[in-house]
Design a protein that fits this description.
Number of helices: 4
Largest sheet: none
Structural class: mainly alpha
Order of helices and strands: HHHH
Strand content: under 5%
Helix content: 55-70%
Number of strands: 0
Distance between the termini: 39 Å
Radius of gyration: 13 Å
Length: 80
């Protein structure tokens, strides 16, 4: 679960930590704007005792994919 919640807790990789932080804050913002599409970050969902680790993992992975797709759409949209 720590892979999704906070994999860079020991500062092993500064670039990875920054990318994770961007993913976390973008995911948090998108969850506030469109909560029916974007799940909260895993670090927040893990505090909900009603969710299993499998549910948290799948929601976190789905949200990350949606963020990547949104980024690609925005990049190609700005190039058009």
């Amino acid at each position: 679960m720590s892979q999704a919640a906070f994999p860079w807790q020991y500062n092993q990789d500064i670039l990875g930590k920054r990318l994770w932080s961007i993913n976390f804050f973008v995911g948090l913002l998108l969850n506030k704007i469109l909560p029916f599409i974007f799940a909260p970050p895993a670090l927040i969902m893990i505090q909900n005792h009603k969710l299993s680790y499998g549910e948290i993992w799948s929601m976190a992975e789905r949200t990350t994919i949606y963020i990547y797709v949104l980024g690609i759409v925005l990049i190609f949209g700005s190039l058009a």
